[in-house]
Amino acid sequence: MTYRAPVSDIVFTMRHVAGLDRAMADGVYGDLSADLSQTILEEAGRFANDVIAPLNREGDKHGATLKDGVVTTAPGWKQAYKAWTGAGWNALPGPVDYGGQGLPTLLNSACVEMWNSASMAFGIGPILTMGAIEALIAHASDDLKSRYLEKLVSGEWTATMNLTEPQAGSDLAAIRSRAEPSGDGIYRITGQKIFITYGEHDLTDNIVHLVLARLPDAPAGTRGISLFLVPKFLSDGTRNDVRCHSIEHKLGIHASPTCTMIFGDNGGAIGWLVGEENRGLACMFTMMNNARLAVGLQGVAIAERAYQQALAYANERRQGRAIGAAEGMSPIAVHPDVQRNLLTMKALTAAARAICYMTAEAIDRAHLEEDPARRKKANERASLLTPVAKAFSTDIGVEVASLGVQVHGGMGFIEETGAAQHFRDARIAPIYEGTNGIQAIDLVVRKLPLSGGETVRAQIASMRATVARLLKESTPAFGATAPRLRDAIESLDRATGFLLQAVSSNVQGEALAGATPYLRLFALAQGGAALAEMALAANAQAAAGDADPAHAGRIALCRFFAENIAVGAKGLEDTVMSGAGFLQDATLALAS
């Protein structure tokens, strides 16, 4: 099934939920206009539709191959990447000083969604390069910036993130890779890294690895980790002492080479320190935070792709007779249970998209606001929303892709329809760039206490303000949207107070046990409020004479979310506030 970029929905969400119009009015985005944004996104949509999407199925079937240390990507991959960088898409958010276009994170986030809807295996590579650019801008020396940033910004070279080792998954304190100083600011890197996305490939002439390793006298734990830039090829054209040992045979994203990388077979790979010694984790988090939003967008992307395919199939597949229909079989899209599945898919996708775009706008303000107090406020808001954007969006990516298989029925379990690929591809996103359990812990333990809890309280107040506007509307089409969303937000408020108290009192069991259901609760309340903003905007435009039929659809989708999905908030609240009791009996239950 052909993917069509939902540019209209993307632009509407950017303008009426994420705050694009407000940011332009505030001067945050310089001379960026709504018309220019629309033009860029339409062009990105065409590229995603016409160039990347047709390669998705072939990439899944063919995969990437390794022979004699050389990784060859799927047929068409190299040509598509060259066309993509040639059109300037890699440089879209890059710094102007190094050849980038300096466009906002919000605009690039919409593009990232489209690249990954077209092919998640294609889209993940540039995500890491863009994250590396952020890390180098923030932490690298002027010398490293001058040597590497321009080619990374253009996409002429790509970059990787080398954290994980066989004995060290999420526990980075267990890293064993070593870095030995060898004079003149050069270090020799030795060690093994696993799960390295695009660690080796044939798309570019050079690959820049950002590698976590320990210096000889480094303190134990995460406080003793440093970050190093290790290129595949040195500036004189010499091959560095780094190689791809193997590529993984994976459940999904087959066309993305996931590599085991070996550094230092012959004395150590040459690298340069990024940032300060023993401060590498702080540097790497710059890259990881960028990647976490992008991976959240992957969840939105795969959900959108799965929804489009399921909807098309449901409109084509005829089976049974709809209630009240004349003789003959009806498309399954008119049957209530299938409609529920499709609406759930669309509503979850729209809510996750809105949360991701809100996060992107907050990141932009954290970088671009001139007033320090506003920058700080935006930075804390971005910090609060990032784990929600990453975890909720990737969770619903899996859920929506699974529903897509269900809508296809038996044919969904057959590879030739393509529905199974979306399900397989989606499953990695809740795992990489920080598992979703870790995102939930980060949200509860680190982000809720920001500014003494005022950051999250302000976010909840914003949700309440949206519901207050809904309550003033007398439009019958809204149904019970306002009271259902109000209930969800009040559940969130009570659970937030409970967890803030648990964290401040150092009651770790209650905080950690409630973290994952709390993140979901936060996302349901925030996602519902975001859809309500869209519904309010749609209602206002329709009342002003805009005959776009999408407006009625946006109102109906918001109502569905409020009355069928957000109502789960109370159960999540109960789990957060009383569910920690399982910790007392977990060992017994698991051993039985």
UniProtKB/TrEMBL annotation:
The Swiss-Prot or TrEMBL record lists the needed cofactor(s) as: FAD
MF terms from GO for this chain are: flavin adenine dinucleotide binding; oxidoreductase activity, acting on the CH-CH group of donors
The domain of life for this entry's organism is Bacteria
- According to the entry, every stretch annotated as the Acyl-CoA dehydrogenase/oxidase C-terminal domain falls at 278-442
Task: Enumerate the spans annotated as Acyl-CoA dehydrogenase/oxidase N-terminal domain.
Answer: 38-156
Which terms are listed as keywords in the entry? FAD, Flavoprotein, Oxidoreductase
**Reactions that this protein is recorded to catalyse:** 3-(methylsulfanyl)propanoyl-CoA + oxidized [electron-transfer flavoprotein] + H(+) = 3-(methylsulfanyl)acryloyl-CoA + reduced [electron-transfer flavoprotein]
Give start and end of each Acyl-CoA oxidase/dehydrogenase middle domain: 161-264
Q: Which family does it belong to?
A: Belongs to the acyl-CoA dehydrogenase family.
PANTHER family per the UniProt record, alphabetical: ACYL-COA DEHYDROGENASE, BROAD-SPECIFICITY LINEAR ACYL-COA DEHYDROGENASE FADE5
By what name is this protein known?
3-methylmercaptopropionyl-CoA dehydrogenase
